[in-house]
């Protein structure tokens, strides 16, 4: 068999919203399942995904989530979204976050922390962004033990030569 | 060399089209084609689980269903079936491509 370079997908996770945390985890896991190498670089708010006391507390605010219709919650409101003005009511973000978590759980989707563990066990390489770590005064000990290292943007570019890069 | 695999029908992606014609011997032969020379006891725990799921639901289980349904950890699953366990396990078990995402 001829040796050819294995396919490699690198994800850049820059968001800390619950709904923006899942895409890379789901795609990354599917990639590992299909024998594709996976690297994930967490930067800015995306670092929440690998921070011990934040990863399972990610939230999704209803404001400006135009695709989230009230009918998803079983209300007979047709195509009406959640009015942005309601988003300022205390507890609304907690409610929409709870709702999303509940729906994900129904599909057997694990919480973020467990997902990170699965990805790491499956061979994905996980890195924190050095600049963001310096900016927010985060320590390496604050991260989940599955995080391989804290690296610079330049390091990330070096280690993903030839990879397909997905920015989220 | 002609093997029993020549009499089996596979789809374009290499999955068996009729799971009912699967036997352990066929599983072993497909495993060899997938680069796994010897199926150990833990390989079989996974295959047995897949066969059982296939019989019950008509579908191949996802990787997470395998790890939550057996005593096999994610790490071990990837070690037993390296480079793409999702498809590999389903192929060896004579099932179709797993449909779930997790």
Question: In words, what does this structure look like?
Answer:
- The complex is a heterodimer of chains A (168) and B (102).
- Chain A is of the alpha/beta class.
- Chain A contains five helices and five strands; from the N terminus they run βαβααβαβαβ.
- Chain A has helices at 18-33, 92-106, 112-121, 130-135, 153-159; strands at 8-13, 37-42, 125-129, 149-151, 164-167.
- A five-stranded parallel sheet of chain A has the order 4-3-2-1-5.
- In chain A, α1 links the parallel β1 (8-13) and β2.
- Chain A is globular and about 55 Å long.
- Chain A starts with 7 loop residues before the first strand and ends with a strand.
- Chain B is mostly helical and 102 residues long.
- Chain B is built from five helices and no strands.
- Chain B has helices at residues 24-33, 41-57, 63-69, 74-80, 85-92.
- The N and C termini of chain B lie far apart (38 Å).
- The model of chain B has no long low-confidence stretch (mean pLDDT 89).
- The A-B interface holds A 6, 26, 29-30, 32-36, 107-110, 117-118, 121-123 and B 62-65, 67, 73-75, 78, 82-88, 98, 100-102.
Overall pLDDT score of chain A: 92
CATH class value of chain B: Mainly Alpha
Q: What name goes with the CATH superfamily of the domain at 8-60 and 111-167 in chain A? A: DsrEFH-like
The CATH architecture of chain B would be Orthogonal Bundle
Strands of chain B, count: 0
Number of helices of chain A: 5
Residue share in β-strands of chain A: 5-15%
Category by helix and strand content of chain B: mainly alpha
Biggest interface between chains = A-B, 18 and 20 residues
CATH topology of chain B: Arc Repressor Mutant, subunit A
Strand order of the largest sheet of chain A: 4-3-2-1-5
* Biggest sheet overview of chain B: none
Helix/strand-derived class of chain A?
alpha/beta
* Number of alpha- plus pi-helical segments of chain B: 5
CATH class value of the domain at 8-60 and 111-167 in chain A: Alpha Beta
Assembly state here? heterodimer
């Amino acid at each position: 068999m001829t040796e050819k370079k294995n396919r490699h997908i690198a994800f850049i996770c820059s968001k800390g919203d619950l709904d923006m945390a899942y895409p890379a985890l789901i795609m990354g896991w599917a990639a590992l399942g299909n024998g594709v190498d996976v690297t994930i670089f967490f930067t800015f708010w995306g670092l929440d995904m690998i921070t011990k006391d934040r990863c399972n507390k990610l939230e999704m605010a209803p404001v400006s989530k135009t695709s989230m219709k009230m009918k998803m919650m079983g209300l007979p409101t047709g195509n009406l979204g959640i009015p942005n003005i309601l988003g300022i009511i205390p507890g609304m973000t907690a409610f929409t976050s709870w709702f999303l978590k509940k729906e994900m759980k129904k599909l057997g989707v694990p919480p973020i922390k467990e997902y990170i563990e699965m990805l790491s066990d499956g061979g994905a390489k996980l890195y924190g962004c050095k600049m963001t770590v310096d900016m927010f005064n985060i320590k390496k000990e604050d991260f989940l033990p599955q995080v391989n290292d804290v690296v610079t943007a330049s390091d990330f570019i070096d280690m993903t030569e030839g990879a397909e890069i997905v920015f989220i | 060399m002609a093997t029993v695999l020549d009499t089996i029908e596979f789809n374009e992606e290499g999955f068996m089209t009729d799971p009912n014609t699967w036997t352990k011997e066929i599983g072993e032969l497909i495993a060899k084609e997938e680069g796994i020379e010897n199926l150990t006891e833990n390989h079989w725990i996974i295959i047995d689980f897949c066969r059982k799921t296939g019989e019950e639901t008509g579908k191949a289980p996802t990787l997470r269903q395998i790890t939550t349904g057996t005593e096999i950890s994610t790490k071990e699953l990837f070690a037993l079936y390296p480079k793409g366990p999702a498809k590999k396990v389903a192929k060896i078990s004579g099932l179709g491509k797993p449909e779930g995402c997790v």
